[in-house]
Amino acid sequence: MIGQASAPLVAAAINRLTKPAPLSRERLGRFAGKTALFRVGPVAVSLTVQTTGEVLPAAEAAAPDLEVRVSPFLLPRLAAHDEAAYRDVETLGDVEFAGEVAFLAKHLRWDAEEDPLIASRVKVEDFIAGVSELRDAVERLDKRIERIEKSAG
Question: Domain 4-112 carries which CATH code?
Answer without folding.
Answer: 3.30.1050.10
